[in-house]
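Why Neutral zinc metallopeptidase? Reviewers of the renewal asked for a concrete example.
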Amino acid sequence: MLGLYFLFAIPPLLLGFYAQWKVKSSFSAMSKIPARMSGAEAARRMLDNGGLQSVAIEQVSGHLSDHYDPRAKVLRLSQDVYGGRSMAALGVACHEAGHAFQDAKGYAPLVIRNAAVPAANFGSGTGMVLLMIGGLLSFKPLILIGVALFALVVFFQLVNLPVEFDASARAKHELVAQGMIAGNEEQYISKVLNAAALTYVAATLQSVMTLLYYLYVIFGDRR
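Here is what the prediction returned.
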């Protein structure tokens, strides 16, 4: 049974490690490509052009800790992105600004994702505990409850994919449309955003494969 688990778990785990390496290496490489403005300036310009003057931009600590807070309506950018005048900084900053656009327009996948956060957090914690205990005891009813809870995590991950892809698409469109980058510079932005997208794909694959493994444990030996 342990060998079967590794068969399900190892491929997405390896993809996850590769995705983390890819996003770090791409950000580092694109940080060396200069831009006309800082990440904070690009995000501010994108937000203002979209009528989102009320969305604030703050600098926070950490590396690649950038995010948009829909409750506070604040864009929080790490130091390298906030003040960085590079293609990497522009890509990350405007990607997060893309989430602010989604929030303002009531983008359906984002609304669903935000609503699913509490359930996904509960499913990730309690569901995994029940799955592990049920697996150790070979107690299928407990595994089944864990699977039902962990399915909430998979749902969250699946809904998150279009949210992240759409934010990146909005970022690239606005950067070119507003003349913050030239058309031939979009390739640099894409390298950073595509690498980041791979991390979301890897996380989704990991959760899906985990769910499939436990479904196989429950139903795989039935005739």
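Residues 2-219 form one domain. This is the kind of structural detail the renewal will allow us to pursue systematically.
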